Amino acid sequence: MWKYLGKRLLQMFITLLMFQAVTYFLMDAQPGDIADLLTLNPDIPPAERERIRQDLGLDRPPLERFLKYVGNFYQGDLGVSFSFFPRPVTDIIKERLPRTLVLFVTASIISFVAGYVTGKVLAWKRGGFVEYSSTLVGVILYTVFTPWFALMMIWLFAVYLDWLPAGKFLDPILWLDAPEGVHANDLFIRMIMSALIASVVMVIGLVLTPRLSRNLRNVGRWASFIIPVIGLILYWQLVVSGLTVFAADILQHLILPVLTVTLIAYGGTMLLMRTSMLETLREDYILTARAKGLPDKVVRDKHAARNALLPVWTGLVFSIGNSLSGGIITETIFSWPGLGLTLLNAAQVEDIPLAMGALTVTGLMTLMSHLVADVGYAFLDPRIRYH
Amino acid sequence: MSKKLFIVVGLLVIASMALAACTPETITVVETVVVEKEGETIVETVVVEVEKEVEAAPMEEAAGAECCDAYRIALFEEPVSLNYWNYLGPGSSVWTQYVVSGQQAALFNLSDVRFDFITELASAIPEPVDNGDGTYTMTVEMIEGATWNDGEPITAHDYVFTFNACKDLKLTQNWPNQCTPAGLEATVTAVDDYTVEFVFLNQAPSLGNWQAGLALAPILPEHYWTDKAAEAYAFLDGVAAPEVERPEDCEAEDADADVCGAWASYDEAFTNARTTLYEADAADAPSAGGYTTDKWEAGAFVQRSAVDTYFFKGAEIVEFEDGTWQLTMPDGTVYQLYGAGEGEETLRYTNGPYSPNIIFSLYGSQDAAFLALANGEVDYVMNPLGLSRGLREQAERGEGITTYTNADYGMFYLAFNMTKFPMSEYAFRQAFDIVIDKEFVVNSVLGGVVFPMYSTMPPGNGFWHNPDTPKPYVGLTRAERVDMAVQVLKDAGWSWTAEPFWDEDLQDVVPGEGILGADGAEIPEMTILGPGPAYDPIRATFNQWISEWGRELGMPIQSELTGFNTILGPVFIDADYDLYILGWSLGNVAFPDYFESFWHSRNCTADTGNYNTPCLKSDEYDALVDEFMATGDLARAQELVYEMQVVLADLRPYVPLFYKQVHDLAHSRVVFPYSETLGGIEAQAGIQTDAQVMLSK
After folding, report:
1. Is B108 part of a structural domain of the chain?
2. Is B611 on the interface with A (CB under 8 A)?
3. Are B316 and B640 in contact, with CB atoms under 8 Å apart?
4. In CA terms, which of A142, B332, B377, B448 is 20 to 30 Å from B96?
5. Which of B434, B441, B304, B280 is nearest to B360 (CA)?
6. Cβ separation B297–A184 shorter than 8 A
7. How far apart are CA A338 and CA B48, in angstroms?
8. CA angle B140, B145, B146 (to 5 degrees)
9. C-alpha torsion B250→B256→B257→B258, nearest 10
10. Which pLDDT does position A301 carry in this prediction?
11. Residue B477 has what pLDDT?
12. Which residues does B694 contact at the CB level (< 8 Å), separation at least 6?
């Protein structure tokens, strides 16, 4: 396994390097550069264009610039953004990547769980009205034009019902009263960390519960949910009580984009799970399980659903990996200041370091997701072993 | 099943009808329109009633409502930084401009609405003194008592510090125009705390180097920046320019490595010095204006809060019909220029700041920002990108939205590459000018969304626009245009194997064939570069019509609709194009120095990389521009600009095509001190200090 992992990591490194080379030269091959855009003002003499090129390093040949970029990249220096000059790209990515990840990881996980459960049940109870209507809803959500759907969600929940904010990250008027030194990004990171710790506790609880005696198992399951939730409440009410209102504001702004992305992702996951499950139910081992007289629930959940899960798992991991590129539309419509929106703006103004930074993160996440998917297979399907 | 389907469809139809019926219908549109009337241009304000009842204009409502709430402005891109050095340097962005506007001080300024040259921290407009040795001295007395918001006085030393930093560190991009405008060499010294002395070493003071240059330059606080500037200056310790002249090409094989190395070190020292200043954190930089930036939540909002000690707070500004500009300070001191204050008042307001806070909310796109306006989340959208009719109408459906329409200070044009045949031929350019039926494209094709343009100065800039610029082809029929263009080309020696003509039976032009230039010269294939319909449908439409009319004359010409970045290289860098269609935003309203940048022979793009993209080389025109740039007499400058418009209309390096109007949308609870202004409210950064946002609205 370790040998396999090492080989894969080496492959990943080479792939990433090739990916960086291709994207860098493609970006660089665009006509003009940012210095042309910055100096498109008749009051600025052409000598200034050269001085800006010099200041930004654009006066050097592309190959030299690429080699320097790659050299710096692997030392952790992603350069300075041209369009946010002189802000380091690393700073911008650190600020915006968590926002994109939270939006898409949350949506992916919710849609995965919901899609898995409903797809499984629908395939099992095939032929009824519920299955037909649910499949229709799934197809609509899967094929819907994302910008239109997002705008409809805004119209319904923000304009017509006025339940949720139309977009953005927070409410500026509320944040005028934020305590000195409290920044939205720091608070957001704190929210992520507390949610992450609670989730880890929850998962550990759920993993350990089956080892308990039959009498304690139910208590253990409930405790796995209740303890982290109470912990979260206590932390936000007692430890950082003054910030709860601001955290709630960010959370409120998160609901609509997460709901939209979740619904869009849910359609595909549910349909995939249903189809995969239907295929699995035709397998001989399902017939054998039934013939053995096993209860329906056991056949469905342990024999069929677990095997049907593999393609859905792949879909989940890849969707997280590709969240950045998918985020461009969603983040633009919901004014969610994540990395997708940043990539779009950087590419438009030929901010090569920032665009390269965002694209490299996308590449890394995609490569990582492939690795996670492969490793995850080994756990989900005992027949798969890596040598 | 089909019955259910009918019920569902029926319900959907009823729901859509109900929705349509519930759509808000009240819109107030305040428009500044340019009216061409018997050769005279009038700019007037009208209230246009759209669809249903018209709401009261916001200025009328101000009296009954209580002031003041936060002024919430939507931006759809993030500012780059709060560092003013960086803002005028490589971090230059219009979004930063909105957020930092007004925080710097200046000796002089341009007046509201009329853009007259007026005093700000200077107590009077000085007269130049001829020193008799080719140099001139200008002494500016400053008003005492003005302070930065941290309480430190604004002094002559601040001006000198800013000027010297700009010059010594060779600051880039927009900075050279602040310390070496139009190639001026000058020294600036602080005679005392409130007296600045300028010595013009190589030029006499003129409108170009003084009124549009040093006089308007920003002043930054020395006490705040001195340490940070010292770090930048440290890179220049012991650095001197190499004695040997800079080689033209250090990449060349025969380049002297030592000399190139010496120059590279010299350049690097300045790059490091500049970057140090541009990089400096300026989150708490003092402001001289009505607002100072307090908080910036990246990706979310920027907060500016009112400065109670703002020096001009409570000052009253009045402009009169006779051209007088008058400022009355709260202590009763009056500063008055350009007249005796006679006739009707054309403008009167009291300086703010009024709103305790200005909140710039950041949105992901233009659509999201206008949705927020319609939804009441913001009071005004800062929109530098133009506004499509669909999006405007959608936003106007929001409750209490007012549209302000003003003339734009911009020009959209067709340019010829005069270094290439046949664009270098006068007859060729004239023939194109004749066949381009601007009125047809604007009125019949585009439905009047833009206005045909005939002069190289937009009519909205009334002082400089020459209403008598010739427009001989207005009103010609298609047949007359073709006949006239053919005649012009024939007179110049052009010929066809089959001449183009207007066919009365077909009611169309029969295109010419086998066209040859004078002396039988073959006409090469030509393209008209221009932005595609996704970027600008208006320019794309013009492009296609113009190439079609060119082909009717028998010219081998095609439209090439492409990305904006793709046009930049061939036009502005390589100067390798045939014809192109683009637009300019024209910058300084008070001093149109673009007449020099765009058409003076010394700025030919092919020779120098400057902005004379057609490469017009006319001694007559150059002489006019040179005099214009050197004169200090405003009346003479106006005469010269009038003449230049006539000369350009004849030489035709550009054929002006159209100009636009700008639409500013704001909530009616915002009361602007004025709304008629060239370029619109956005060009004034939303008139932040003097806008009032009514609480009761």
Report:
1. no
2. yes
3. no
4. B377
5. B304
6. yes
7. 41
8. 75
9. -120
10. 86
11. 93
12. B61, B62, B65, B66, B67, B68, B69, B669, B670, B671
Report yes or no: B153 at the A interface, CB cutoff 8 Å.
Answer: no
Q: What is the pLDDT of residue A325?
A: 67
Candidates A36, A96, A160, A176: best to mutate against B (most CBs of B within 10 A) is A176
Residues of A (171-230) whose Cβ lies below 8 Å from B: 172-173, 175-176, 183-185
What is the ipTM score, two decimals? 0.79
- Find chain B residues with C-beta within 8 A of A82's C-beta: 90
The Cα B342–Cα B322 span in angstroms is 6
Residues B43 and B186 in one domain: no
Per the structure, how many domains does chain B have?
4
Helical (H) or strand (E) element with B180: none
Would you list the domain boundaries of chain A? 95-308
pLDDT for residue B64: 55
Residues of A in contact with B413 (CB under 8 A): none
**Judgement on whether residues B391 and B427 belong to the same structural domain of the protein:** no
* Burial class (CB within 10 angstroms; exposed 0-12, middle 13-18, buried 19+) of B331: exposed
Nearest CB neighbour to A36, from listed B172, B298, B572: B572
> Residue B518 corresponds to which amino acid?
A
Residues B621 and B678 in one domain: no
Q: Tell me the two tokens of residue B549.
A: 């009319």
CB contacts, 8 Å: B594 with chain A: 42
- Give yes or no: residues B453 and B505 share one domain: yes
**DSSP per-residue string spanning B295-321:** EEETTTEEEEEE-TT-TTTT-EEEEET
- Per the structure, the complete domain to which residue B194 belongs is given by 121-221
Which residues in chain A come in under a pLDDT of 50?
A: none
Instruction: Choose among A44, A56, A159: nearest Cβ to B375.
Output: A159
Task: Give pLDDT, residue B4.
Answer: 55
Q: Which residues from chain A sit within 8 angstroms of residue B456, using beta carbons?
A: none
Q: What's residue B18's pLDDT?
A: 45
Both B478 and B393 in one domain: the answer is no
Whether residue B349 contacts residue B690, with contact meaning beta carbons closer than 8 Å, is answered with yes
Report chain B residues whose CB lies below 8 A from the CB of A85: 80-81, 86, 90-91, 278
Distance CA B216, CA A54 (A): 28
For residue B228, which of B180, B181, B277 has the smallest C-alpha distance?
B277
| B513 and B647 fall within a common domain | yes
B565–A31 CB contact, under 8 Å: yes
Tell me if chain B has a CB within 8 Å of the CB of A249.
no
Tell me what pLDDT residue A384 has. 62
Residues A243-269: pLDDT tens digits? 889 999 999 999 999 999 999 889 989
Q: Write the CA distances from B422 to B494, B511, B645, integer angstroms.
A: 11, 19, 24
Judged by CB atoms within 8 Å, which residues 42-71 of B form the interface with A? Answer: 70
Q: CB A55 to CB B271 under 8 A?
A: yes
* Dihedral over alpha carbons A289, A291, A293, A298 (to 10 degrees): 20
* Segments in chain B below pLDDT 50: 1-2, 5-6, 9, 13-63
pLDDT at B547 (0 to 100): 95
Mean pLDDT, chain B, integer: 86
CATH code at position B162: 3.90.76.10
Q: Establish if A166 touches chain B: CB-CB under 8 angstroms.
A: yes
Same domain, B453 and B542: yes
Give the residue from B18, B20, B14 showing the smallest Cα distance to B397.
B20
**Closest residue of chain B to A183, computed from CA coordinates:** B297
Residues 101-120 of A with CB under 8 A from B: none
Are the C-beta atoms of residues B103 and B288 closer than 8 Å to each other? yes
pLDDT of residue B221: 96
Nearest to B402 by CA among B19, B57, B115: B57
Best to test chain B binding among A40, A51, A157, A180 (most B CBs inside 10 Å): A51
